[in-house]
Write a structure and sequence with these properties.
Chain B: It is a peripheral membrane protein. Chain B: It comes from Mesorhizobium mediterraneum. Chain B: It is found in: Cell membrane. The complex is a heterodimer of chains A (239) and B (258). Chain A has 239 residues and is mostly helical. Helices cover 76% and strands 0% of the residues of chain A. Chain A has a domain at 26-184: MetI-like (MetI-like fold), CATH 1.10.3720. In chain A, helix 1 (16-50) packs antiparallel against helix 6 and helix 3 (71-92) packs across helix 4 (103-128). The N and C termini of chain A lie far apart (51 Å). Chain B has 258 residues and is α/β, with parallel strands linked by helices. Chain B contains nine helices and ten strands. In chain B, the strands form two sheets. In chain B, strands 6-7-8-3-9-10 form a six-stranded mixed beta sheet, with helices on both faces. In chain B, strands 2-1-4-5 form a four-stranded antiparallel beta sheet, with helices on one face. In chain B, strand 7, helix 6 and strand 8 (203-206) form a beta-alpha-beta unit. The termini of chain B are far apart. Classes of the chains: A mainly alpha (239), B alpha/beta (258). The interface between A and B is medium-sized, with 23 and 29 residues. Bound molecules: adenosine-5'-diphosphate and magnesium ion (MG). Magnesium ion is lined by residues 46-47, 176 of chain B.
């Protein structure tokens, strides 16, 4: 086992640098997917809470579909299906191939849209947990809908949403491993390549696990910190 | 001396929830300086009446006026233009809820300056100065940086009163301000409302505290099944009510409180 460890180093035979880059790529993909999920999830949640009937039904259907279909299938659909669509369009326009789409983009979109469905659930639940009385108190002093949302609803809902959003972030990190099927060199892909090349499967998959654990543990701390800060003033928080 | 002008008026107000007709034609006027107590059995429509004034519930028909602003909604909804008027009206009212409804994510001071800053767009220094004076008035100056969750119910309700006063309201509406309080905390809130009455504030108070109502009110209104069944000075309504129902309601109440 001793010799093996140099494989993880920064030396000429070491995969250290490649693994670090791959870890960063995992982080990029996850952050991009989480943020697009947040943006889109907010829209979905809003449609479900405040939309008219067709909008509400559409948003519900969206959540049902993306929560009910395996994530890997959505990624295949976006990457391989997307490539097919792009090729068809390109050919129709008389352009010469080969056509390709970015694994990064397809992966981020696929995971972002899946995450949007889940995040919209968290956000909707958080909105519904805002005490009605505090909303009435805002209306009765003359707040507009926008001010009410910004000053009364959002700050309270975010507190409730933080733990759930932390969970969503953790799942996005783990789902980002699925993007390896597009050939994007993130952590999963990189350790698979290294394991195959060196035949040191246990070593590299263990290293991969550690990379994911570092990311998830650190972000767990960040979310806990955010939760503690935001709970100031609430019963659980203390001063 | 000029006569006090009308602070608030309600005319021909009706409101149903589905097939349940809760208010069946209410007329009520409060002149500046009036303290009107609304009494009546549970379910008689007191809260609904109070909530119709700032359009928290939208009347089916009828007119509500606060100072210069007046609204006559139809069909239980407000148009965009009417909503703007409703907001303006809300800006001239203070509303105190049974359950306080402070904003839990803001400190005591922040609760009081919230509307002055973010609705009325007053300068911060001015809003803080005024809020500090109001907190002094309700006896909570030293709690200005506390979180609502760390206050007793009585303290929270006094903050809610300071928040209502920060509206510089033409009239203040109270919906059973002491009903959610432990008995030993009722007194401190009633004391504050009493002081406001002594200042000549215009108030509409839904209450079950009959002794208090008798003492502070210029008029007492007894509501029964969505109609004003009896109205008059405290002496008339408590001393010699014309309505049999009012008499029965009061005797039940005083018996219970003995
Ligand atoms: N938002 C509402 N939806 C349906 N019914 C309501 C609503 N608010 C009040 N009611 C009904 O209206 C009637 C009067 O209620 P309320 O005004 O709260 O009476 P009070 O304050 O005198 O006890 C009750 O029968 C109550 O159930
Ligand atoms: Mg009531």
């Amino acid at each position: 086992m001793q010799a093996d460890l140099t494989l993880l180093g920064l030396g000429p035979d070491g995969w250290g640098l490649a693994l670090a880059r791959a870890g960063l790529m995992t982080l990029y993909v996850s952050v991009a997917a989480f943020l697009s999920g947040l943006a889109f999830g907010t829209l979905i949640a809003w449609a479900r809470v405040a939309g008219n009937w067709p909008l509400r039904k559409l948003a519900e259907a969206y959540a049902t579909v993306f929560r009910g279909v395996p994530d890997i299938l959505v990624i295949y659909l976006f990457y391989f299906g997307g490539r097919q669509v792009v090729t068809a369009i390109g050919t129709a326009l008389g352009l010469s191939g080969p056509f390709d789409i970015s694994g990064f983009l397809a992966g981020v979109l696929a995971i972002g849209l899946i995450s949007a469905a889940n995040q919209s659930e968290v956000l909707r639940g958080a909105y519904q947990a805002v005490p009605r009385g505090t909303i009435e108190a805002g209306r009765v002093v003359g707040m507009t809908r926008l001010i009410l949302f910004r000053r009364v609803i959002a700050p309270q809902a975010l507190v409730t949403a933080i733990p759930g959003m932390g969970n969503q972030w953790q799942s996005v990190i783990k789902e980002s491993a699925l993007v390896s099927v597009t050939g994007l060199v993130e952590t999963m892909r990189q350790v698979a390549v290294a394991a195959g090349t060196t035949q040191e499967h246990f070593l590299f998959y263990a290293a991969g696990a550690i990379i994911y654990l570092i990311i998830t543990t650190l972000s767990d701390h960040v979310f806990r910190l955010a939760e503690r800060r935001s709970l100031r003033g609430h019963e659980q928080g203390g001063l | 001396m000029s006569l006090p002008s009308t602070a608030l008026s309600i005319a021909g107000l009706r409101k149903s929830f589905g097939s349940n007709e809760v208010l069946r034609g209410i007329d009520l006027v409060a002149k500046d300086g009036d303290v009107i107590s609304l009494i009546g059995a549970s379910g008689s429509g007191k809260s609904t009446l109070l909530r119709c004034i700032p359009m928290l519930e939208i009347p089916d028909v009828g007119t509500v006026s606060v100072g210069e602003d007046s609204l006559s909604p139809t069909g239980g909804r407000l148009s965009r233009a009417q909503l703007a008027v409703a907001r303006q009206m809300r800006g001239h009212l203070g509303f105190v809820f049974q359950n306080f409804n402070l904003w839990p994510h803001r400190t005591v001071l922040q609760n009081v300056i919230e509307a002055p800053l973010f609705v009325q767009s007053r300068p911060r220094a001015e809003a803080v100065e005024e809020a500090t004076a109001l907190l002094e008035k309700v006896g909570l100056a030293e709690k200005r940086d506390a979180w609502p969750a760390h206050l007793s119910g009585g303290q929270q309700q006094r903050v809610a009163i300071a928040r209502a006063l920060a509206q510089r309201p033409r009239a203040i509406l109270f919906d059973e301000p002491t009903s959610a309080l432990d008995p030993e905390l009722v007194g401190e809130v009633l004391k504050v409302i009493r002081a406001l009455a002594a200042e000549g504030r215009t108030m509409l108070i839904v209450t079950h505290e009959m002794g208090f109502a008798r003492e502070v009110s210029s008029r007492v209104v007894f509501l029964h099944q969505g109609l004003i069944e009896e109205a008059g000075t405290p002496g008339q309504v408590f001393g010699n009510p014309a309505s049999e129902r009012c008499r029965a309601f009061l005797s039940g109440h005083f018996d219970r409180n003995r």
